[in-house]
Amino acid sequence: MTGENAGSWTRERGWRVWLAGLTTVLLWGTSFVLTQALYSRWGPLWVAAGRWLVAGGVFALLLPAWGQVGPFRQALGRHPGAVLRFALIGVTGLYAVQNLALTLTTAANASVLGNLVPLFAAVLSGLFLGERLTGRLVGALGLGTLGAVLFSLEGAAVVVAPAHLAGDGLVLLSALAGAIYVVQGKVLVARYPPSVVTGLAAILGGLFLLPLALAVEGIPPWPGWMGLWGLLGLGLGASVVANLTWWYVAARLPVHRAVFFILLIPVVGALAGNLLLGDPMTPAAWGGTALILAALYLAQG
Known about the structure:
It contains 13 helices and no strands. The protein is mainly alpha-helical. The protein starts with 13 loop residues before the first helix and ends with a helix.
Protein backbone atom coordinates (compact mmCIF):
# COMPACT_ATOMS: atom_id res chain seq x y z
CA MET A 1 0.00 0.00 0.00
CA THR A 2 1.45 3.34 -1.07
CA GLY A 3 0.86 6.82 0.26
CA GLU A 4 -1.24 7.68 -2.83
CA ASN A 5 -3.85 4.93 -2.30
CA ALA A 6 -3.69 4.64 1.46
CA GLY A 7 -6.73 6.85 2.14
CA SER A 8 -7.73 7.78 5.63
CA TRP A 9 -6.86 5.63 8.61
CA THR A 10 -10.53 4.90 9.16
CA ARG A 11 -10.55 2.96 5.89
CA GLU A 12 -7.49 0.89 6.87
CA ARG A 13 -9.34 -1.68 8.96
CA GLY A 14 -10.35 1.24 11.18
CA TRP A 15 -10.58 0.38 14.84
CA ARG A 16 -8.19 -2.59 14.61
CA VAL A 17 -5.36 -0.41 13.35
CA TRP A 18 -6.11 2.25 15.97
CA LEU A 19 -6.30 -0.33 18.75
CA ALA A 20 -2.99 -1.88 17.69
CA GLY A 21 -1.35 1.54 17.37
CA LEU A 22 -2.55 2.76 20.75
CA THR A 23 -1.46 -0.51 22.38
CA THR A 24 2.02 0.01 20.95
CA VAL A 25 2.12 3.62 22.19
CA LEU A 26 0.98 2.69 25.69
CA LEU A 27 3.59 -0.06 26.08
CA TRP A 28 6.46 1.86 24.49
CA GLY A 29 5.61 5.10 26.30
CA THR A 30 5.59 3.52 29.76
CA SER A 31 8.71 1.45 29.03
CA PHE A 32 10.93 4.52 29.64
CA VAL A 33 9.84 4.70 33.27
CA LEU A 34 10.12 0.95 33.83
CA THR A 35 13.54 0.82 32.18
CA GLN A 36 14.87 3.65 34.32
CA ALA A 37 13.57 1.96 37.46
CA LEU A 38 15.58 -1.18 36.64
CA TYR A 39 18.88 0.71 36.60
CA SER A 40 19.17 0.39 40.36
CA ARG A 41 19.59 -3.36 39.79
CA TRP A 42 21.28 -3.82 36.38
CA GLY A 43 23.37 -1.77 33.97
CA PRO A 44 21.76 -0.34 30.82
CA LEU A 45 23.16 -2.95 28.45
CA TRP A 46 21.92 -5.82 30.60
CA VAL A 47 18.49 -4.26 30.85
CA ALA A 48 18.38 -4.03 27.04
CA ALA A 49 19.76 -7.54 26.58
CA GLY A 50 17.49 -8.98 29.28
CA ARG A 51 14.25 -7.68 27.76
CA TRP A 52 15.15 -8.91 24.27
CA LEU A 53 16.41 -12.29 25.49
CA VAL A 54 13.04 -12.73 27.20
CA ALA A 55 11.31 -11.75 23.96
CA GLY A 56 13.58 -14.01 21.91
CA GLY A 57 12.82 -16.94 24.19
CA VAL A 58 9.09 -16.32 23.74
CA PHE A 59 9.39 -16.33 19.95
CA ALA A 60 11.61 -19.42 19.99
CA LEU A 61 8.52 -21.15 21.40
CA LEU A 62 5.83 -19.28 19.46
CA LEU A 63 7.22 -19.52 15.92
CA PRO A 64 7.25 -23.36 15.86
CA ALA A 65 3.81 -23.43 17.50
CA TRP A 66 2.48 -21.06 14.82
CA GLY A 67 4.15 -22.99 11.98
CA GLN A 68 6.39 -20.05 11.03
CA VAL A 69 9.86 -21.51 11.31
CA GLY A 70 9.94 -21.86 7.51
CA PRO A 71 9.29 -18.15 6.82
CA PHE A 72 11.78 -17.25 9.57
CA ARG A 73 14.52 -19.28 7.87
CA GLN A 74 13.46 -17.96 4.48
CA ALA A 75 13.92 -14.38 5.63
CA LEU A 76 17.40 -15.17 6.95
CA GLY A 77 18.38 -16.99 3.75
CA ARG A 78 16.91 -14.63 1.16
CA HIS A 79 17.41 -11.25 2.83
CA PRO A 80 20.42 -11.60 5.17
CA GLY A 81 21.59 -8.01 4.68
CA ALA A 82 18.17 -6.50 5.41
CA VAL A 83 17.66 -8.76 8.43
CA LEU A 84 21.08 -7.94 9.88
CA ARG A 85 20.55 -4.18 9.44
CA PHE A 86 17.12 -4.55 11.00
CA ALA A 87 18.38 -6.42 14.08
CA LEU A 88 21.79 -4.78 14.53
CA ILE A 89 20.66 -1.17 14.10
CA GLY A 90 17.02 -1.39 15.08
CA VAL A 91 17.42 -3.53 18.20
CA THR A 92 21.06 -3.83 19.30
CA GLY A 93 22.01 -0.27 18.35
CA LEU A 94 18.71 1.36 19.25
CA TYR A 95 18.21 -0.18 22.68
CA ALA A 96 21.86 -0.22 23.74
CA VAL A 97 22.19 3.50 22.95
CA GLN A 98 18.74 4.36 24.28
CA ASN A 99 19.24 2.54 27.57
CA LEU A 100 22.68 4.12 28.02
CA ALA A 101 21.12 7.51 27.32
CA LEU A 102 18.52 6.98 30.06
CA THR A 103 21.35 6.82 32.61
CA LEU A 104 22.52 10.27 31.46
CA THR A 105 19.21 12.11 31.05
CA THR A 106 15.65 12.07 32.38
CA ALA A 107 12.80 9.80 31.28
CA ALA A 108 10.91 12.89 30.06
CA ASN A 109 13.88 14.13 27.98
CA ALA A 110 14.28 10.71 26.40
CA SER A 111 10.58 10.43 25.63
CA VAL A 112 10.39 13.92 24.11
CA LEU A 113 13.53 13.66 21.94
CA GLY A 114 12.41 10.23 20.79
CA ASN A 115 9.58 12.13 19.10
CA LEU A 116 11.99 12.85 16.23
CA VAL A 117 11.60 9.25 15.04
CA PRO A 118 8.54 10.18 12.89
CA LEU A 119 10.48 12.97 11.15
CA PHE A 120 13.50 10.77 10.49
CA ALA A 121 11.30 7.88 9.36
CA ALA A 122 9.22 10.06 7.02
CA VAL A 123 12.38 11.34 5.33
CA LEU A 124 13.89 7.85 5.04
CA SER A 125 10.63 6.39 3.70
CA GLY A 126 10.64 9.03 0.96
CA LEU A 127 14.29 8.37 0.09
CA PHE A 128 14.27 4.57 0.19
CA LEU A 129 10.64 3.46 -0.17
CA GLY A 130 9.41 6.09 -2.61
CA GLU A 131 6.58 7.25 -0.33
CA ARG A 132 5.24 10.72 -1.11
CA LEU A 133 4.47 13.19 1.63
CA THR A 134 1.44 15.39 0.92
CA GLY A 135 1.20 18.98 2.11
CA ARG A 136 -1.36 17.94 4.72
CA LEU A 137 0.96 15.29 6.15
CA VAL A 138 3.91 17.70 6.18
CA GLY A 139 1.72 20.15 8.09
CA ALA A 140 0.69 17.43 10.54
CA LEU A 141 4.32 16.46 11.10
CA GLY A 142 5.19 20.11 11.71
CA LEU A 143 2.32 20.50 14.16
CA GLY A 144 3.32 17.36 16.03
CA THR A 145 6.93 18.51 16.16
CA LEU A 146 5.81 21.87 17.54
CA GLY A 147 3.98 19.96 20.26
CA ALA A 148 7.22 18.17 21.07
CA VAL A 149 9.04 21.52 21.19
CA LEU A 150 6.58 22.72 23.83
CA PHE A 151 7.44 19.65 25.86
CA SER A 152 11.15 20.32 25.37
CA LEU A 153 10.99 23.97 26.38
CA GLU A 154 8.93 23.84 29.54
CA GLY A 155 6.89 20.70 29.93
CA ALA A 156 7.05 17.30 31.48
CA ALA A 157 10.10 18.03 33.62
CA VAL A 158 12.39 18.34 30.60
CA VAL A 159 15.80 19.56 31.79
CA VAL A 160 18.11 21.53 29.48
CA ALA A 161 21.47 21.35 31.24
CA PRO A 162 25.07 20.40 30.41
CA ALA A 163 24.76 17.35 32.62
CA HIS A 164 22.13 15.94 30.25
CA LEU A 165 23.64 16.92 26.88
CA ALA A 166 25.47 13.63 26.32
CA GLY A 167 22.37 11.65 27.17
CA ASP A 168 20.19 13.84 24.96
CA GLY A 169 22.64 13.37 22.07
CA LEU A 170 22.49 9.62 22.49
CA VAL A 171 18.69 9.76 22.47
CA LEU A 172 18.85 11.58 19.12
CA LEU A 173 21.15 8.86 17.78
CA SER A 174 18.74 6.21 19.03
CA ALA A 175 15.89 8.09 17.31
CA LEU A 176 17.72 7.74 14.00
CA ALA A 177 18.24 4.04 14.70
CA GLY A 178 14.53 3.78 15.49
CA ALA A 179 13.67 5.35 12.13
CA ILE A 180 15.91 2.86 10.35
CA TYR A 181 14.18 0.06 12.30
CA VAL A 182 10.78 1.32 11.12
CA VAL A 183 11.76 1.70 7.45
CA GLN A 184 13.77 -1.52 7.18
CA GLY A 185 11.04 -3.39 9.02
CA LYS A 186 8.45 -2.04 6.57
CA VAL A 187 10.37 -3.76 3.76
CA LEU A 188 10.37 -7.05 5.68
CA VAL A 189 6.74 -6.91 6.82
CA ALA A 190 5.69 -6.51 3.18
CA ARG A 191 7.07 -10.03 2.63
CA TYR A 192 6.58 -11.77 5.98
CA PRO A 193 3.93 -11.70 8.73
CA PRO A 194 4.38 -9.42 11.77
CA SER A 195 5.13 -12.41 14.01
CA VAL A 196 8.12 -13.42 11.86
CA VAL A 197 9.41 -9.84 11.66
CA THR A 198 9.10 -9.42 15.44
CA GLY A 199 10.72 -12.82 15.97
CA LEU A 200 13.69 -11.78 13.82
CA ALA A 201 14.10 -8.60 15.87
CA ALA A 202 13.77 -10.38 19.21
CA ILE A 203 15.91 -13.46 18.62
CA LEU A 204 18.74 -11.82 16.68
CA GLY A 205 18.63 -8.58 18.66
CA GLY A 206 18.87 -10.45 21.97
CA LEU A 207 21.72 -12.62 20.70
CA PHE A 208 23.65 -9.56 19.49
CA LEU A 209 23.10 -7.68 22.76
CA LEU A 210 24.20 -10.58 24.99
CA PRO A 211 27.97 -10.55 24.19
CA LEU A 212 27.97 -6.74 24.23
CA ALA A 213 26.48 -6.68 27.73
CA LEU A 214 28.90 -9.35 28.94
CA ALA A 215 31.93 -7.54 27.49
CA VAL A 216 31.03 -4.11 28.86
CA GLU A 217 29.22 -4.84 32.13
CA GLY A 218 30.28 -8.37 33.05
CA ILE A 219 28.01 -10.97 34.62
CA PRO A 220 25.01 -9.23 36.21
CA PRO A 221 23.85 -9.85 39.78
CA TRP A 222 20.52 -11.44 40.61
CA PRO A 223 18.06 -8.57 40.01
CA GLY A 224 15.68 -9.62 42.78
CA TRP A 225 12.09 -10.62 42.27
CA MET A 226 10.93 -7.06 41.59
CA GLY A 227 13.68 -6.62 39.02
CA LEU A 228 12.77 -9.94 37.41
CA TRP A 229 9.13 -8.91 37.15
CA GLY A 230 10.26 -5.63 35.60
CA LEU A 231 12.35 -7.44 32.98
CA LEU A 232 9.46 -9.76 32.20
CA GLY A 233 7.21 -6.74 31.84
CA LEU A 234 9.62 -5.12 29.38
CA GLY A 235 10.23 -8.35 27.51
CA LEU A 236 6.62 -9.47 27.21
CA GLY A 237 4.92 -6.09 27.02
CA ALA A 238 7.24 -3.53 25.42
CA SER A 239 9.12 -6.04 23.25
CA VAL A 240 6.77 -8.89 22.31
CA VAL A 241 3.29 -7.36 22.34
CA ALA A 242 4.24 -3.78 21.40
CA ASN A 243 6.33 -4.88 18.42
CA LEU A 244 3.70 -7.34 17.22
CA THR A 245 1.05 -4.62 17.28
CA TRP A 246 3.44 -2.13 15.68
CA TRP A 247 4.18 -4.39 12.71
CA TYR A 248 0.46 -5.09 12.39
CA VAL A 249 0.01 -1.33 11.92
CA ALA A 250 3.06 -0.96 9.66
CA ALA A 251 1.83 -3.76 7.38
CA ARG A 252 -1.41 -1.84 6.77
CA LEU A 253 -0.25 1.78 6.59
CA PRO A 254 2.59 3.54 4.77
CA VAL A 255 5.44 4.54 7.04
CA HIS A 256 4.67 8.26 6.91
CA ARG A 257 1.18 7.57 8.32
CA ALA A 258 2.04 4.80 10.78
CA VAL A 259 4.69 6.91 12.51
CA PHE A 260 2.08 9.40 13.67
CA PHE A 261 1.26 6.95 16.45
CA ILE A 262 4.81 7.46 17.73
CA LEU A 263 3.97 11.13 18.33
CA LEU A 264 1.89 9.97 21.27
CA ILE A 265 4.86 8.29 22.99
CA PRO A 266 6.17 11.48 24.68
CA VAL A 267 2.66 12.18 25.96
CA VAL A 268 2.37 8.70 27.47
CA GLY A 269 5.94 8.84 28.77
CA ALA A 270 5.39 12.24 30.40
CA LEU A 271 2.11 11.14 31.99
CA ALA A 272 3.77 7.96 33.26
CA GLY A 273 6.65 10.01 34.64
CA ASN A 274 4.14 12.27 36.40
CA LEU A 275 2.13 9.41 37.90
CA LEU A 276 4.99 7.06 38.80
CA LEU A 277 8.02 9.32 39.34
CA GLY A 278 6.40 12.60 40.34
CA ASP A 279 7.68 14.55 37.31
CA PRO A 280 5.47 17.68 36.95
CA MET A 281 3.11 18.32 34.03
CA THR A 282 3.13 22.05 33.24
CA PRO A 283 0.69 24.05 31.07
CA ALA A 284 3.22 23.86 28.23
CA ALA A 285 3.14 20.06 28.48
CA TRP A 286 -0.64 20.05 28.18
CA GLY A 287 -0.37 22.46 25.22
CA GLY A 288 2.10 20.12 23.56
CA THR A 289 -0.29 17.24 24.13
CA ALA A 290 -3.11 19.19 22.43
CA LEU A 291 -0.93 19.96 19.40
CA ILE A 292 0.13 16.33 19.04
CA LEU A 293 -3.49 15.18 19.18
CA ALA A 294 -4.37 17.82 16.58
CA ALA A 295 -1.56 16.51 14.36
CA LEU A 296 -2.99 13.00 14.60
CA TYR A 297 -6.42 14.31 13.58
CA LEU A 298 -4.97 16.31 10.67
CA ALA A 299 -3.03 13.28 9.41
CA GLN A 300 -6.22 11.26 9.01
CA GLY A 301 -7.31 13.22 5.96
